[in-house]
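Go through this chain for my students:
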Amino acid sequence: LGRALYHAIQFPDAIKNLQAAADKDHASALATLANWFSLPRAGLTRNDEKAFKLRLRAAELGHSRAMQAVAENYWQGIGTQKDRGKAISWNRKAFEINLKRAVAGDTQAMRSVSSYYEYPLGKAIDEQKAFEWFRRAADLGDPDAMESLFNAYFFGEGVPEDKSKGRFWRQRRFERLNELAASGDPIALYD
């Protein structure tokens, strides 16, 4: 309800509902509030320390995107002290969760695994592995992964540059978004 109220531009009610869910340790509510304090949104004042505490609690509850964000916070020292060891540890936990989900066919997790290889903390970049996971997600119809393949081929990131293949994936993304929009998918309407 909190996110729906946010999208309806009813910010005080959105914050109240999200805070109520966060108070009950709802990991996604904690992560969303953290993002709102980081950006800031919904009329909130930016507060990196509060955002970090909310995000850390969501991560402790197993929220993999919050784990990735906590890793970045530790890596950059945003809202907390820099701690590269903790950053790498949280990043690894998120990777392990996302890898299990990706192997099971979750395209969002596949994109997260790709990002782990594309933007690793404390490790060498592996563009080929990133590309492989983006390709798996794209083959399952994920429009964001299709956009990543467009970039990979068009700009030669992890694969030999091939503008024709890049344009193919851009067109395929457009077609997939139209399919999803026709079915009423709100994300497709947004993209």
Summary: The CA atoms of residues 13 and 103 lie 38 Å apart. DSSP finds eleven helices and no strands in the chain. The first helix runs from residue 2 to 7. Residues 1-8 have pLDDT under 50 and may be disordered.
